[in-house]
Write a structure and sequence with these properties.
By secondary structure, this protein is an all-alpha fold. The chain has two helices and no strands. The longest helix is centred in the middle third of the chain and has 22 residues. It is elongated and about 110 Å long. The termini are far apart.
Length: 73
Amino acid sequence: MFTTLIESKHKGERKLGGASVSVIIHAALIALLVAVTADAGQKAIKEHRQEDVKFVEVKKEPPPPEPEKPPPP
């Protein structure tokens, strides 16, 4: 079933330059994401201002008078 081993088609060593470029790009992306999201939660707090709230009492209307009951038959 398996006549060829995985390492039979080995392509050779990887170059150090490719790995270092990958590390630099990933580090730059992580630093960029950290810088962009560093104060994301702080902006919402800064923009929130205290508002003055005034309460007003509304007078309730008196209930309508009950209708007269018809006399018993």
